[in-house]
Amino acid sequence: MSKRDTYRSVRDEREYGLYWYSGLWHILRPILVGLTVLILVVGIGMTVWNKLYGSFLAPVDPDDPTEYSFEISSGDSLNKVATNLEKAGLIRSKSLFKYYCDFAGMGQKIQVGSYTMTKGMQMTEIADLLTTGDGNPLVRNITLIPGETIEDFAARLVKNGVLENADKLLAICKDGKAFQDYYYVKDVLVTGQPEKRKYVLEGYLAPNTYEVYVSATEEEIVKKLLSQTETVFTEENQARAEELGLNMDQVLTLASLIEKEAKASDFTKVSAVFHNRLKENMKLESDVTVHYITGVRKMSLSDSDLNTDSPYNTYRVTGLPLGPICNPSADAIRAALYPDESMVNEKYLFFCAKEPESGELYFSKTLDQHRRAVEIYAPYWKKYDEERGIQ
């Protein structure tokens, strides 16, 4: 090979090498640029993340193992819970806590309860804890038995640990003003001589079993029962009451007497007697109205019992007593509105108890028939009282 050929070969190889490196650089350059940009973005992202995490997401104090109590009450909104957590120093940002709970679908799942947490907990851990509950029951059942008075009901709530004492419940039921948004309570406050009533709300708490929050206040409990009364006293009942010339308070008052006087099977019969006596402008002479005043369920009433000075004593007042003497059932309300027609037409005017243990009643049309029945059954009443130490 000549020198010229050798030189040309070397030159060609050099040019080829330069071409190869040039092509490789064209390939690698965008990759290297991309990697550099990615490293910069990741670096910036990590810096921003660390800043955000430290400012908003990180535990408030990872080194503090102290346990703190936190309460969520019935009716607390997500906003209030978040605000209280921030005030307690358990999270860094109430806004971020709210956004997280909403985004994760936890906003409506936070539960009432007493919780224990530390400042070393992650925000997400706190949110999870508040949605799983504290392990304690959130609700309980309470029952108002048909025929119970407000005092009976309050005493049982205390006995069952629902209330510490009965004072507040009795006070708000006696006054009634906190519940005047209910039209029927307002009617009593305006026209029902509330200052003379033993309890303004007597008769207006619907007997039933209710589920209430364990943290429910006396007002919340009463409102639950008052709302059910509106359901029980239907439009049909309203129309029937108007047909009879009675208002809601009078119907509930009559129903309360029926509830206390008889077993359910005799409700409409007792109602017929009371309706007939009202038509005749006779005193109702119902023993249970005296029981309501004295607080003693006595079968044989004494002269002093009968002469008790009270607007509830139907041995002294003509017509219905001032107001209900217990909280009547839906069946008793219906009986007050729909008395036994045959007994109404036959003008039954009297009834009395037979043997007290049986709960049966004896019905009479005339005073003579009634007196004979009383002579037969009075010894049973006296014995019943004596066995129970009732004088």
Order of helices and strands: HEHHEHEHHHEHHHHHHHHEEH
Instruction: Give me the secondary-structure category.
Output: mainly alpha
What is the total domain count? 4
What's the rounded overall pLDDT mean?
A: 88
Tell me the number of strands.
6
Radius of gyration over alpha carbons? 40 Å
Q: Helix count, per DSSP?
A: 16
- How far apart the termini lie comes to 148 Å
Helix content: 40-55%
Name the overall outline.
Answer: elongated
Strand order of the largest sheet: 1-2
Low-confidence stretches: none
Beta fraction:
5-15%
The main pleated sheet reads as: 2 strands, antiparallel
Give an overview in words.
The chain has four domains: 1-57; 68-132, Dna Ligase, domain 1; 139-231, no CATH class; 261-387, no CATH class. A hairpin with a 7-residue loop joins β5 (350-353) and β6. It is elongated, with a radius of gyration of 40 Å. The chain starts with a helix and ends with a helix. The mean pLDDT is 88. The protein has 16 helices and six strands. The protein is mainly alpha-helical.
